[in-house]
Amino acid sequence: MSLTEQLGILEADRLPGSLVPDDGSLPQQIAAVIRHRIIHDEIKPGKPIRERQLAEELQVSRTPLRDALKILALEKLVEHIPNKGAVVIDHSPDDISDMLLVYIELDGLGGRLACRVGTEADFLRVERQIHRMESATRDNDRIAYFRANQAFHLAIVAASRSSCTIEFHANLNLRLHRVRYLSILKNHQWMDRSDDHSKLLSALRARDAAAYSEIQQRHFSVAWHLVDAWTNRAPEGE
User: Coiled coil located at which positions (predicted)?
Assistant: First the structure.
């Protein structure tokens, strides 16, 4: 499948978070395809990026492909290892816990700022994601629920109007996407605390930052449990 065909498929699943501005260039388009494969576990941690094979599949030359890998290296999704080339970064459980801790703090900061400066238009965008999560819950569709949940938190932080908070929160969201995605797919507790979303929205509309913080910390205790259970699981086959 060509690069153009794959980009069309990925458009509905596009996530913000790159530290490099997306100018629509060929390297950015190639990076989008590889990024999607990494965060959806199609290319696993520790595995090399097969440049020649990928270039042939996407019908692109090696030069823009290597530029795409540089973008992904800046995003901390791949690393360049001598004599091996680009390899998907395999984060340790401690690395993931550290990223999740900072992500939760940024998410909370974004919400508290949104309580102060968010508009009703912002809150309606947040509310739309709650409806999407409710629909996914009724359909028992974990993937749709996960996508709506991601969009819910990104929409709240976007309402903060804080460019630094938005940028770093989105980048950590991207780096944590794979493990959070897999933890929801593999764990029966994926819908726990789903009622917190409406409570968070109510706190936003009430401009009650203290209430928002309390609900948000409780809400993420479940996410922390799911991710911790996944990252500390026994290796497959044991």
Answer: none
